[in-house]
Amino acid sequence: GRMACRGLYVFSHESYLGNAPSNQLFEKIEIHRIDHSKVARSYKDYTVVFDEKMPEGVTLYKIVNSFKDVKAVN
Prior knowledge:
74 residues, mainly beta, two-stranded antiparallel sheet, 5 strands
């Protein structure tokens, strides 16, 4: 098998010890199938939803984003 990076998202904290727990940050990014009636064959069959509202002191950087449908939720 092969892998190709389609999305790389980095959370940066102002504090060395972190400003928010990882589970809280990972819930800010969701991957959804676009059409459940057919088998997913490509990354194009998925969409990414971001909750752009980060905890204080945390910044989200989108390093690689190959997804066609990316939605931001505030």
